[in-house]
């Protein structure tokens, strides 16, 4: 259980912060940037949820919880020491990505195939989901960059890759099952 009785600690006033294993790193470190971008995605998703109802709101709620799991995973390096940790770290699981894939497949079954690229827009929810998609892609790029230099749970990278697809398909659902998609017209303004 998390208990926060005090919000500020002053321990980061010099520009460093603690990772989940207690190690102190610069706030601009790639690991902090990766999980900070996941946190930004979660906040962006909170804005999208203002426009969501029903089943999609429930799915977005589950994704928000997953994103906290993902942040917890990314803030805890040294995966090879997981077994000896006092508190086993929370790691992303393949089942979380599998759930996204099932949801993508179910949503996509309702849609006509695309014959053009989709511009971000349409309904308020679709527009916010497109923003979530682009922030998700940035979080994925930062996490992949981190994984090229340090150990990262491969399930974390896979989850982010699939999640951006989820946001794209969900944005089409939010646009009246794709009927209100804003389509790109190549060279339309030449």
Automatic annotation (TrEMBL):
Gene Ontology BP annotations: cobalamin biosynthetic process
GO molecular function, one term: ATP binding
Assigned EC number: 2.5.1.17
Gene3D superfamilies given in the database record: Cobalamin adenosyltransferase-like
Superkingdom of origin: Bacteria
Keyword annotations of the record: ATP-binding, Cobalamin biosynthesis, Cytoplasm, Nucleotide-binding, Transferase
Gene Ontology cellular component annotations, sorted alphabetically: cytoplasm
Annotated catalysed reactions: 2 cob(II)alamin + reduced [electron-transfer flavoprotein] + 2 ATP = 2 adenosylcob(III)alamin + 2 triphosphate + oxidized [electron-transfer flavoprotein] + 3 H(+); 2 cob(II)yrinate a,c diamide + reduced [electron-transfer flavoprotein] + 2 ATP = 2 adenosylcob(III)yrinate a,c-diamide + 2 triphosphate + oxidized [electron-transfer flavoprotein] + 3 H(+)
A Pfam family that the UniProt record links to this protein: Cob_adeno_trans
Pathway(s) the chain acts in: Cofactor biosynthesis; adenosylcobalamin biosynthesis; adenosylcobalamin from cob(II)yrinate a,c-diamide: step 2/7
Record-linked InterPro entries: CblAdoTrfase-like (IPR016030), CblAdoTrfase-like_sf (IPR036451), PduO-typ (IPR029499)
Location(s), subcellular: Cytoplasm
Presence of keyword Nucleotide-binding: yes
Location of the Cobalamin adenosyltransferase-like domain: 7-173
Family of this protein: Belongs to the Cob(I)alamin adenosyltransferase family.
Protein name per the record: Corrinoid adenosyltransferase
Species per Swiss-Prot/TrEMBL record: Histidinibacterium lentulum
Lineage, broadest ranks: Bacteria, Pseudomonadati, Pseudomonadota, Alphaproteobacteria, Rhodobacterales
């Amino acid at each position: 259980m998390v208990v926060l009785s005090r919000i500020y600690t002053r321990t980061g006033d010099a520009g460093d912060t603690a990772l989940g294993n207690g190690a102190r790193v610069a706030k601009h470190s790639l690991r902090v940037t990766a999980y900070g971008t996941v946190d930004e995605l979660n906040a962006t998703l909170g804005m999208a949820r203002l426009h969501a109802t029903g089943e999609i709101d429930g799915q977005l709620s589950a994704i928000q919880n997953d994103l906290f799991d993902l942040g917890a995973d990314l803030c805890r390096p040294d995966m090879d020491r997981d077994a000896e940790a006092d508190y086993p770290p929370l790691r992303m699981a393949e089942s979380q990505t599998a759930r996204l894939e099932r949801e993508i497949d179910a949503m996509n079954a309702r849609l006509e195939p695309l014959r053009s690229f989709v511009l971000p827009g349409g309904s308020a929810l679709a527009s916010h989901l497109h923003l979530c998609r682009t922030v998700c892609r940035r979080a994925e790029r930062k996490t992949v960059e981190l994984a090229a230099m340090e150990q990262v749970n491969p399930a974390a990278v896979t989850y982010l890759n699939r999640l951006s697809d989820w946001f794209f398909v969900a944005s089409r659902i939010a646009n009246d099952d794709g009927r209100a998609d804003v389509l790109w017209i190549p060279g339309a303004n030449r």
